[in-house]
Amino acid sequence: MNAYPGFLAVRRQSQEKSGDSLAQLDELAAAGQAGMELDHLTGELAPLAGLDGIFEVILPDGETLGVAVNQSDKATAILLTPSSRQLGERLKGKRTELERRLARHIGRDVSLAVL
Fold it and tell me: DSSP labels for 16-62?
C-alpha cells in the first residue's frame, strides 16, 4: 500500500515477455502500425479518466507514467509525466491522437498535456 493518500498504482499484466515491449512498439511504429501503441495507452488511461487524483501507470516494458486527472462539468484534464525522455517524446508526438481517442472512448472532451 502506498503511503500517499490519493495515489494509486495501476499495473497491467503483459502477454509479452518483459523487456521486449518497447522495442516491439518501436518496430510497429516504423511499420506504420503506431495505432496499436495508442490503443494500448487508451486502454490504460481510460479507466482513470473517470476519477480525480494522481496515479501511476506501469507500462508492460516497466516504464512508468505519472497521471494527474481533474474532472470538470464538461471536460477531463489529464497531465502525463513520463519516466523517460524517450517515452515523453513519443507521447508528445502522439498527444493529439491520444487525446481524440480518449475523448471518443470516455464520451467527453479531454485536454491532455505531456510534461
Answer: SPTT-HHHHHHHHHHTT-THHHHHHHHHHHGGGGGS-EEEEEE-TTS
CATH topology for 7-114 is Transcription Regulator spoIIAA (3.30.750)
What is the per-residue pLDDT across 9-49, written as a single tens digit (0 to 9) for each?
444 333 344 445 556 555 544 544 355 577 888 888 888 88
pLDDT at 54 over 70: yes
User: For residue 45, how many other CB atoms are within 10 A of its CB?
Assistant: 24
**pTM higher than 0.85 for the full model?**
no
Domain residue extents for the chain: 7-114
Q: Strand, coil or helix: what is 101?
A: helix
Helix axes 95-106, 85-93, angle to 10 degrees: 70
Taking CA atoms, 111 is separated from 11, 21, 57, 102, in Å, by 24, 27, 18, 10
